[in-house]
Write a structure and sequence with these properties.
Number of strands: 18
Radius of gyration: 21 Å
Helix content: 25-40%
CATH architecture of the largest domain: 3-Layer(aba) Sandwich
Number of helices: 9
Number of domains: 2
CATH class of the largest domain: Alpha Beta
CATH topology of the largest domain: Aminopeptidase
Largest sheet: 9 strands, mixed
Order of helices and strands: HHEEEEEEEHEHEEEHEHEEEHEHEEH
Structural class: alpha+beta
Strand content: 25-35%
Length: 364
């Protein structure tokens, strides 16, 4: 299982898929589902869904397949590109990063976000983060005509140069671990759902535009009208010196659940999970001998913030995997956490039967 998850993750991390431009990723995931014999369908936005019939409360189990990045804002006369950020891109992590300008499969153009020559910077500049609007991308071309002849236009998507690297101890480093790791886990869950003989109706979904203000999952939830929603995403690992005080989540410590999330910056939204879902995952983890970590964070927001409000309300919970260095060009996760997350999800779904109660008074 770990080998399958690793291969899916490594492959998907190497495919660019900026928010609103996820089609290459969607096609790759669809092909993998096809190879399993699992039919899937897409909607107008590009969400991908595989339906597994069953009995009991219906479950929307989902993760997002898009990544953050940039949009070409302007092409300078000398061939340099100016960018607009898409998603929570940290300015302090941009200078000198390699990028990929996504013109089309087989035609993408590599480039680099320029970093002013060290020998020409004054003392003040050496300790200053350059605002993204002052940065530019160099793709090696000398004129605007050279650039446009490649197909690059204002509005062309740009991502960090895709990369996937195996580190020691079953750890993976690279671009878009957020949330291709979630996609790899859901592909493993799909393999198991295909062969099950009982369980609830499950809509397994790979959603779009999460990094662009959580756009894709809500219309899907409004269509599916699930009773239960389980979102798979990262949990902020707090086991490095710079993250002390941010919680107890540790890389390699197993999957976890979010007990509280709140954005608190511009978008006043978040998730307090339904007690039935907290009970389900706590009891499942204990029964299966799977370690279960707990997270409570401000500054975190997922699609579930909106999905929970579909219809008359949805019993919701965020379940995830520890990840270091979120929203940077090189994120990091542990394959053992992903494998245990797949085991946890599979076992939890088996416990949702026709008599599974969503009555809060049964748990509080």
């Amino acid at each position: 299982m770990t080998t399958r998850i690793k291969q899916d993750l490594m492959d998907l991390m190497r495919i660019p898929g900026l928010s609103g431009h996820e089609d290459r990723v969607r096609r790759s995931i669809r092909n993998r589902l096809d190879d399993m014999g699992v039919p899937s369908r897409s909607d107008c936005l590009g969400n991908l869904v595989a339906d597994f019939p069953g009995e009991g409360p219906s479950v929307m189990l989902f993760t997002h397949m898009d990544q953050l990045g940039f949009i070409v804002r302007k092409i300078e006369g000398n061939g340099l590109l100016r960018l607009e950020r898409l998603g929570g891109v940290p300015e302090r992590a941009l200078a000198a990063q390699e990028v990929l300008v996504c013109v089309g499969e087989g035609r993408d153009i590599p480039g680099v976000i320029a970093n002013k020559s060290h020998h020409a910077t004054n003392t003040e500049e050496k300790y200053k983060v350059t605002p993204y609007r002052d940065l530019y991308v160099d793709i090696g071309m000398a004129s605007e005509d050279d650039v446009t002849n490649t197909g690059i236009r204002v509005g062309t998507p740009v991502v960090y140069a895709p990369r996937a690297v195996e580190l020691a101890g079953e750890r993976i480093m690279g671009t878009s671990v957020d949330d291709r790791a979630g996609c790899a886990v859901l592909l493993e869950v799909a393999r198991r759902l295909k062969n099950r003989t009982a369980g609830p109706p499950v809509h397994l979904a790979f959603t779009v535009q999460e990094e662009f203000n959580l756009r894709g999952a809500l219309p899907l939830a409004q269509t599916l009208q699930p009773d239960v929603a389980i979102q798979i995403d990262l949990l902020l690992a707090a086991d490095t010196p710079d993250m002390r005080g941010h919680g107890d989540i540790a890389l390699g410590g197993g999957p976890g659940i979010s007990l509280y999330s709140f954005h608190g910056r511009g978008t006043l939204n978040g998730v307090i999970p339904h007690p039935a879902m907290v009970h389900l995952f706590e009891q499942t983890a204990q029964s299966e001998g799977i370690p279960l970590q707990r997270s409570a964070q401000v500054g975190v927001l997922t699609d579930l913030s909106y999905v929970q409000h579909a219809g008359q309300g949805v019993a919701s919970i965020d379940v995830g995997f520890p990840m270091r260095y979120s929203h940077s060009a090189r994120e990091l996760c542990d394959l053992c956490d992903l494998a245990q997350l797949a085991d946890l999800l599979d076992a939890a779904l088996q416990r949702i039967g026709p008599d599974f109660s969503l009555d809060r008074d049964d748990y509080t």
